[in-house]
Design brief:
Strand order of the largest sheet of chain B: 2-3-1-4
Oligomer: heterodimer
Shape of chain B: globular
Order of helices and strands of chain B: EHEEHEE
Largest interface: A-B, 53 and 31 residues
Radius of gyration of chain B: 15 Å
Number of strands of chain B: 5
Largest sheet of chain B: 4 strands, antiparallel
Low-confidence stretches of chain B: 72-79
Strand content of chain A: 15-25%
Structural class of chain A: alpha/beta
Distance between the termini of chain B: 32 Å
Radius of gyration of chain A: 22 Å
Strand content of chain B: 25-35%
Distance between the termini of chain A: 40 Å
Strand order of the largest sheet of chain A: 7-8-6-10-11-12-13
Largest sheet of chain A: 7 strands, parallel
Chain lengths: ~450, ~80
């Protein structure tokens, strides 16, 4: 997609080196960019900056090409702990992030060189993809646009360290790094990938054409009479957290955990997000028959323990499968199926590691990040931020796959015990957080 | 109690799922799914017959098929 022509009169310094310092400030000020876009009525969600993703091993060649184009580049390695405050890169035209093989080109530099978004690079080009940078919003619809704008402004500004003062330890890198949930669960430092582990996600299906998941789906089945393709978004989001890629294209942060696991998509809820016990049980049956070591279920109802779920959970454990399920979001007693003794129940945590206000309690095995979780969404949106024990559950599924990769012994009940034993204790009642905060191997 | 037409039968494991399904069918239960891996049968019948079906060999539990969803809407931020 070519970059759109813009009419942002409020953006400082449209052209020319004489205004470079001013342009850099404007280009790097997320709030300024947001407000400029808002003032111009621009609904493209593009920031004006461009992201160049380089092919593996081609970063140096890419830097040379930037230099040949007359761009001054800053390198994240020149900053302490690679903690780059993009506002502090002086008059650089581009910032290179070697850990993720990406360069961020300022809007001014991109415009003056008539940079175009493209995925159609030649074999000997160092670039894999050139794409516009997008704002990232919370919330799902146009009515939340403004609210999302303001939240995004503060969140992104905090993430890139904009504003006064030294980078705070509590600031989680999300624009170039990993989501707060992955960081909290110590996923980024883990060497495990989920390779060879089958992870089933029983939900509203998946956007099977999402670019972040090419070649990742091992099997897909629908139990609700609709195609697996996810027109709801919930399923794609959950699969994204459990199994999303190690390094999504562009500046998208890492949001997925078991990035080499085999994905089994079971559509047990319709595109309106609803289903019944029978469709869920059919999906569980399918996942167990396929010997998925981890089965993730971000669904439920405020119902008492149901014998069929308990039976299914036991059948899973006996077959070396672990079923993890969302405790529910009613701020009440754990719902079904998570309330079954043979199903691993997950509570949600906020970023400050306090239980989320909506999170159910009572029968809880573990707690995981569940508030403001960034993950995949069906195209054309591609990414979204959602909250719920539904989002905490695939964190557990992904980390369970990492543990399962550690040893073939870690299956079923043993995997259950390992997840709990390795959790980080929290100073909160077990009825709220179970064994504590989920931790990756 | 509202009469429901869809039911979830949990088997006890003492008999093969297919055998339990056959017995249920003889007693007027319309089998829709036999889920061997989880020991469950789903199907339809009149609510008035369910108590009798619960007494059949190999049947551990019969419960109404209930709605499941991704809610109650997870939070104000969720779709």
């Amino acid at each position: 997609m070519p970059p759109r022509k813009r009419s942002r009169t409020t953006r400082a310094a449209k052209t020319g080196a004489t205004s470079r310092a001013q342009a850099t400030t404007a280009d790097n000020g997320i709030e300024a960019m947001l407000l400029a876009a808002l003032a111009a009525g621009d609904d493209s969600l593009e920031t004006g900056r461009f992201l160049i993703s380089y092919k593996e091993g081609a970063l140096d060649a890419g830097k040379r090409r930037l230099a040949s184009q007359g761009m001054r580049t800053a390198d994240a390695r020149d900053f302490e702990a690679q903690d780059v405050n993009v506002a502090d890169v002086g008059d650089a035209d581009a910032v290179v992030f070697p850990e993720i093989g990406v360069a961020l080109v300022t809007g001014t530099a991109a415009r003056s060189r008539k940079m175009l978004a493209t995925t159609d690079t030649d074999a000997d080009d160092p670039e894999q993809v050139i794409e516009p940078e997008y704002f990232v919003f919370s919330g799902g619809d146009a009515s939340e646009y403004l609210r999302g704008f303001m939240r995004a402004a503060s969140t992104i500004a905090a993430d890139i360290g904009a504003g006064e003062g030294a980078p705070g330890e509590d600031v989680q890198p999300e624009v170039f790094g990993a989501t707060w949930g992955l960081v909290a669960c110590r996923v980024p430092p883990s060497v495990r990938t989920g390779l060879g582990i089958r992870v089933a996600v029983l939900d509203t299906g998946m956007d099977l054409g999402h670019p972040d998941f090419a070649g990742r789906v091992a099997a897909a089945a629908s139990f609700v009479g609709q195609p697996v393709q996810d027109l709801h978004g919930h399923g794609t989001h959950c699969i994204g957290t459990a199994c999303g890629p190690l390094a999504p294209a562009g500046a998208t942060p890492r949001y997925g955990i078991a990035h080499r696991a085999q994905i089994f998509v079971g559509k047990v809820l319709t595109n309106s997000g609803s289903g019944s016990t029978a469709s869920v049980l059919a999906g569980m049956n399918w996942a167990i028959a396929n010997r998925c070591a981890v089965i993730s279920m971000s669904l439920g109802s405020q119902a008492p323990v149901q014998a069929a779920y308990t039976n299914a959970g036991n059948a899973a454990l006996n077959a070396g499968c672990l079923i993890v399920a969302a405790a529910g979001n009613a701020a009440s007693q754990t719902g079904a199926p998570a309330n079954s003794p043979s199903i691993f129940s997950v509570a949600a945590l906020d970023r400050n590691l306090a239980p989320s206000s909506f999170s159910n309690f009572g029968k809880i095995e573990i707690a995981a990040p569940g508030r403001d979780i960034f993950s995949a969404a069906p195209r054309p949106r591609r990414y979204a931020t959602m909250s719920g024990t539904s989002m905490a559950t695939p964190h557990v599924a992904g980390v369970a796959a990492l543990w399962a990769q550690v040893s073939p012994v870690l299956r079923g009940r043993t995997l259950w015990n390992q997840l709990r034993a390795s959790a980080r204790g929290l100073p909160l009642p077990a009825a709220r957080v179970g064994a504590g905060l989920l931790q990756a191997p | 109690m509202t009469e429901r037409s869809s039911w979830v039968v949990t088997t006890s494991g003492s008999l093969a799922v297919s055998d339990v399904a056959r017995t249920l069918t003889k007693h007027g239960f319309v089998v829709e799914q036999m889920l061997d891996a989880v020991g469950v049968i789903t199907g339809r019948c009149a609510a008035s017959r369910v108590d009798a079906l619960r007494e059949l060999p190999g049947v551990s539990d019969i419960s109404p098929d209930t709605p499941v969803d991704v809610g109650p809407p997870d939070s104000p931020d969720v779709w």
